[in-house]
Design brief:
The structure is a homodimer. Chain A has about 190 residues and is mostly helical. Chain A is built from 7 helices and 2 strands; from the N terminus they run H-H-H-E-E-H-H-H-H. Chain A binds a DNA duplex (28 and 28 nucleotides) through helix 3.
Amino acid sequence: MSLRYALLGLLVEKPATGYQLHQQFKEKRVYFWHAHHTQIYRELNRMEADEWVTSEVIPQEDLPDKKVYTVTETGRKELTNWVLHEASHPPNIKDEFLVRVAAFHTISTEQAIQLLQEIRTGYQYGVEQTRQWRNEQFGNQLPSPQEIGDYLTSEYGVRYTQTWVEWCDWAIETLKQLKEEGPCEK
Amino acid sequence: MSLRYALLGLLVEKPATGYQLHQQFKEKRVYFWHAHHTQIYRELNRMEADEWVTSEVIPQEDLPDKKVYTVTETGRKELTNWVLHEASHPPNIKDEFLVRVAAFHTISTEQAIQLLQEIRTGYQYGVEQTRQWRNEQFGNQLPSPQEIGDYLTSEYGVRYTQTWVEWCDWAIETLKQLKEEGPCEK
DNA sequence: TTCTACATGTAATGAGTTACATGATTAC
DNA sequence: GTAATCATGTAACTCATTACATGTAGAA
């Protein structure tokens, strides 16, 4: 059900098409929400049926027509109500890589280190990207009331990815130490 | 598909029942994998059909019978192969609370701070629980090769929850500052 | 007497993914 | 010529959640 509210949260800022919403998910919601484009189009149809949004088809030259969605008063109220009064369930995380880590005793230490180094590279890139995005959006300025959500969540993104990088470094070090000490000590 | 490997990762350590696997998910996989018990029983049936595991029904006095699953040689090979050779897709995170944060401009600063404080309490509890678990399992000792996975992933759990607590503190401070400076400066 | 732990499941529904479809423009 | 971007969708499928079902033992 939260997909609705994730979409609504973007739409209250500014009307948008399904395509644009998908782009925004990838740009500024990577670290806390993901949705496939087919899912977004389907949910927008349902929201329109429930009168949480209205749509307008805009013809374009040279490019396909687009369908712009706007939040209704009902949609606005439903969003605020959800943000305030619904309980936050802890997220049901599914991180494939950590499932691999949990099974590291089935592979060699060298192979494990290799996997950690590869994943570290990805997260390091994530840190840089998110920092850069944050800088472009806000620089050293404080956010406007409208931007407060993006300001807070992008900082979360930086910290989340940074924590991953640091954990990878620690894990690699730990494995190296165990390799040296392991055969002698125990 | 990864549920299979998450189950396999637990089963290679020690044969277990569906019920026990579910308990273990809640105990030591909270921060990176979640599965409902109905899902686990269903997947175990499929894995047995594919001969990745075998099962044995053990009658108990006073307690309901239990079905203990053991990994087969095929299961073992499939696991190692997956850990080593399948690409790690970045996780598709779905964190309801951050969707709320992204929509903070629809509620008041006081209400936002309230929500952040509530979530902080939950994560602070998580830090303590995970630290305690880690201490009970390992103390100051280095892990055995068998335990390396739990050692690495529990450290991830501590860092993940700790990052949340720190981010909450930062976010609360930021909102307080904006409340003071906001109306005058801009 | 109400709750929790033990123990395993089916059925229905809802959420999410994959494959397929269309078709122009622009950059390499 | 090959890929990416823009733009929207359907159909089929798998995965995940919720509700329901059953039954005992022990603690509060």
